[in-house]
Design a protein that fits this description.
Elements lengths: L6 E6 L7 H14 L3 E5 L2 H6 L3 E4 L26 H13 L4 E6 L1 H12 L3 E6 L15 H22 L2 E6 L6 H9 L4 E3 L8 H13 L5 E6 L5 H12 L3 E5 L11 H19 L5 E6 L2 E6 H6 L6 H11 L7
Parallel strand pairs: 1-2, 1-4, 4-5, 5-10, 6-8, 6-9, 7-8
Antiparallel strand pairs: 2-3, 10-11
Helix pairs in contact: 1-9, 5-6
The structure holds adenosine-5'-diphosphate and 6-O-phosphono-beta-D-fructofuranose.
């Protein structure tokens, strides 16, 4: 452990994600076990600038591992994207005796952490987002819960869609990334999966799929559409007009961000939270924790932000083949 790290802070930033509480609990308890004090910073960088800082002990994180959301609250803070805001944030940390901070959030939150590190406050990032869109890691806190929530909801839509012999477009979150849509699309057996990384905006192809499937006797047609493509309601109107088949759009929205975390999200968030506390207490800074090839690792934040992530072409092709009746010779 580093002698210069006596007190650390913890904050959650950007969109909340199920499992953030498990990560907060692990950071607090592991740091305390390392002999380091912990302060909770409420409402992300906004709360830091407003000095909304509370002491945390072992019991502050009791009874939270099973809860969705974040007990610290979260926010998006424009002021923190400015040099003055970042300097003020670092000064406030020093004023409150905070030597380092664990930041749980996405890429935007890491940029804030990078800035704090440059201003002399040690920082460690944890990947907290339902979107799975952080390049340095195969896992992000909240994705597993969100994708299971969306999958359950889509199963329900499928029931009513089949009964009424309708086409259903279900829009899932993910900002500009298609991971939630791809995973649900495969897991729900959707007939079409539209993701921003691959979609060619060929709506006629979708219309042809619907008409062909109907001829083959399919009673439903599920289209999982990613938020990054959007426009599900107008797409439904166009598809109904072109096919003559009743078409409905369902936008799942914020329900995907809530709810009790799955075992995987609780477990990984706990291990990653402890890992973040350990490396922060060792005196490391400007690192982000990830999971790759079955191992927990940490990367330089600049390096992590420069990495590119893409949907595997093989996985995407498999998703299309499984959705389409196209046996060789038929
Ligand atoms: P996420 O962390 O989920 O990607 P955002 O992109 O909204 O979510 O970022 C969360 C917060 O991180 C922002 O509201 C802002 O306070 C901070 N942030 C984002 N970008 C920067 C930046 N370039 N410099 C400093 N702070 C940033
Ligand atoms: O990053 C998580 C996420 O839920 C995205 O999927 C979505 O685009 C965005 O946050 C919505 O953010 P807000 O809560 O600001 O509407």
């Amino acid at each position: 452990m580093s002698d210069s790290i006596k007190t650390i802070g913890i904050l959650t930033s950007g969109g909340d994600a199920p499992g953030m509480n498990a990560a907060i609990r692990a950071v607090v308890r592991k740091a305390l076990a390392n002999g380091v004090q912990v302060r909770g910073i409420k409402r992300g960088y906004q709360g830091l600038l407003a000095e909304e800082i509370v002491d945390m002990d072992y019991h502050s994180v009791s009874d939270i591992i099973q809860r969705g959301g974040t007990i610290l609250g979260t926010a998006r803070c424009k002021e923190f994207t400015t040099e003055e805001g970042q300097q003020k944030g670092a000064d406030i940390c020093r004023k409150h005796g905070i030597d380092g901070i664990v930041v749980i959030g996405g890429d935007g939150s890491y940029r804030g952490a990078l800035a704090l590190s440059k201003h002399g406050i040690n920082t460690i990032g944890l990947p907290g987002t339902i979107d799975l869109d952080i390049a340095c890691t195969d896992y992000t806190i909240g994705f597993d819960t969100a994708v299971n929530t969306a999958m359950d909801a889509i199963d329900k839509v499928r029931d009513t869609s089949s009964s009424h012999e309708r086409v259903s477009i279900i829009e899932v979150m993910g900002r500009n990334a298609g991971y939630l849509a791809l995973w649900c699309g495969v897991a729900n057996g959707a007939e079409d999966i539209l993701i921003p990384e691959k979609y060619d905006y060929n709506e006629q192809q979708i219309i042809n799929n619907i008409i062909n499937n109907r001829k083959k006797g399919k009673t439903h047609h599920l289209i999982v559409n990613a938020e990054g493509i959007g426009h599900s309601t107008s797409m439904a109107r166009r598809i109904e007009a072109a096919t003559g088949i009743e078409t409905r759009a369902t936008i799942l929205g914020y329900m995907q961000r809530g709810g009790s975390p799955t075992c995987k999200d609780r477990y990984y968030a706990s291990i990653m939270g402890a890992y973040a506390a350990d490396i922060l207490c060792e005196g490391k800074t400007n690192r982000v924790v990830g999971r790759r090839d079955g191992k927990f690792l940490d990367f330089d934040i600049d390096e992590a932000l420069a990495m590119q992530k893409d949907i595997s072409e093989y996985e995407y092709q498999v998703s299309r083949i499984l959705a389409t009746y196209n046996a060789v010779g038929k």
